[in-house]
Specification:
78 residues, alpha+beta
């Protein structure tokens, strides 16, 4: 599972088996995880993140969306 970015306590990554889905990113902090679709940017689901933290994470994803999409396309060959 390639890590694309670390920002503060967050690790942004995707799984090598994610290629059959639309571009998205997973984020993890400790035992909390979430998934966001990238095009358009929208929240999918999470475990153990509070709403305020999910908004902070969304802002980080928005600021780095080009990097995430480039990494996705490079890894999955799209």
């Amino acid at each position: 599972m390639p890590t694309i970015l670390r920002s503060g306590p967050y690790r942004f990554f995707f799984y090598s088996s994610d290629g059959d889905e639309a571009p998205h990113i997973h984020v993890q902090r400790d035992n909390s995880v979430a998934k966001f679709w990238l095009e358009p940017l929208r929240y999918d689901h999470s475990v153990a993140f509070r709403a305020v933290e999910l908004r902070r994470i969304r802002d980080i994803i928005e600021d780095n969306s080009n990097e995430f999409l480039e990494a996705w396309n490079e890894y999955f060959g799209q």
